[in-house]
Amino acid sequence: MKAVVYRSYGGPEVLEVAEVPDPKVGPDSVLVSVKAAAVNPVDWKMREGYLDGVFDVFFPVIPGWDVAGRVEAPGFAAPEFSVGDEVIGYVRQDAVRNGTFAEKVAAPVRTLARKPHNLSWAQAAGLPLAGLTAYQALVHGLKVGDGDTVLIHAAAGGVGALAVQIARAQGARVIGTASERNHGYLRSLGAEPVAYGEGLADRVRAIGTVTASLDLVGDDSAAATAELGVAPHRIASIVDASVAQAGGVYVFVRPDGADLSALVDLVEAGKVTVDVEKVFPLERAADAMRLNAEGHTRGKIAIEVG
Predict the structure, then answer these.
(1) DSSP summary character for residue 287
(2) Could you give the count of Cα atoms lying within 13 Å of 269 in the half-sphere of its Cβ?
(3) Rounded to whole angstroms, how far apart are CA atoms 4 and 284?
(4) Apex CA 289: angle with CA 159 and CA 177, to 5°?
(5) Radius of gyration of the chain (CA)
(6) How many CB atoms lie within 10 A of CB 140?
(7) What ranges do the domains of the chain cover?
(8) Considering the domain 130-250 in this protein, what is its CATH number?
(9) For residue 206, what is the enclosing H or E element?
(10) What span, in angstroms and rounded, lies between the C-alpha atoms of 78 and 134?
(11) Class assignment of domain 2-127+274-304?
(12) How many CB atoms lie within 10 A of CB 21?
């Protein structure tokens, strides 16, 4: 099969398209014919070696953890899915080797859910990692619900846009930080936008009293949240692990079929959608990663495969 691979750590230039063997399908895995994959910051951070101390990495590596595609063959202990089923998945495995930037991927059953019928392949591929990150932070970590006002830092990004919609679906009011060019976009998602930068806490305070906060960017977000008097156990971050030491919630997203199915239900109920900024062919995966690494995109970047 055709796949994007890298044979050593490095920049986008280490990526190449190569012919590699089809993946083997374990008993509780499902062979998925990939229609689309999504690019996430972890993909290029992994490629550059930043997570070498966290994961066992076996070269050559096929990058990518997000997938949308059709089941080609279920493992003999995977009755949950049948040939032809349309699925999505956050296919993070225990070791880094066989990812989703390929024509086929063997995905553990625990990483999959059915594809939402009202999303394109590219949109569906953008839901798992970003959606699960937001869902696990807001629903499990912060237990956001009616009566909450949630401050989401970097609310217009891939995770942020989904976090806004999930928080709204939970009944919360949302205040989101973003550059001014994205304020209209945040309003369209149901958030009240505020600009980044000095005086952030005062601008937020003028809108309302924040009861929970989700940090997706780092920098001075924690300091601004502290100024607002948010209780430590109602502060979550996906970039600053030190929040856990202060009683907050640090989130490193984990594969969870039940959570992913809950997201699918929200999408099909019209409460959550996925915005895709740009779609690249498999052969231009390096360009897709470069664009993601710039950090200025609104919504998701997808790679079209099948």
Answers:
(1) H
(2) 11
(3) 9
(4) 30
(5) 19
(6) 14
(7) 2-127+274-304, 130-250
(8) 3.40.50.720
(9) helix 200-207
(10) 28
(11) alpha beta
(12) 8
- Phi and psi dihedrals of 56, rounded to 5? -75, 130
Alpha helices by DSSP H, listed for 10-81, are 41-47
> What is the C-alpha to C-alpha distance for residues 157 and 163, in angstroms, rounded to an integer?
9
In this chain, the answer to whether the domains covering 2-127+274-304 and 130-250 adopt an identical fold is no
Phi first, then psi: give them for residue 104, nearest 5 degrees. Answer: -145, 150
Alpha-carbon torsion 215, 111, 139, 296, what sign? Answer: positive
Residue burial 266-276, b: 16+ Cβ < 10 Å; e: rest: bbeeeebbbbb
Cis upstream peptide for 60 (omega within 30°): yes
What is the mean pLDDT of the segment spanning 100-121?
A: 98
For the chain, first and last CA: distance in Å?
12
Give the number of other Cβ atoms within 10 Å of residue 179's Cβ: 14
Is residue 170 within 8 Å of 176, Cβ to Cβ?
A: no
In this structure, are residues 218 and 240 in contact, taking their beta carbons and an 8 Å threshold?
yes
Run of H or E residues at 222? helix 221-227
Q: For residue 97, what are the contacts with CB-CB under 8 A and spacing of at least 6?
A: 57, 58, 61, 62
Residue at 59: amino acid letter:
F
Reported as a single tens digit per residue, the pLDDT across 140-162 is: 999 999 999 999 999 999 999 99
Where on the phi/psi map is residue 37: left (φ > 0), alpha (ψ -120 to 50), or beta? beta
> In one letter, which amino acid is 140?
H
Smallest Cα–Cα separation from 146: which of 177, 174, 109? Answer: 174
Answer yes or no: are the C-beta atoms of 105 and 93 closer than 8 Å.
no
pLDDT digits 0-9 by tens, 16-71: 999 999 999 999 999 999 999 999 999 999 999 999 999 999 999 999 999 999 99
* DSSP bridge pairs for 305: none
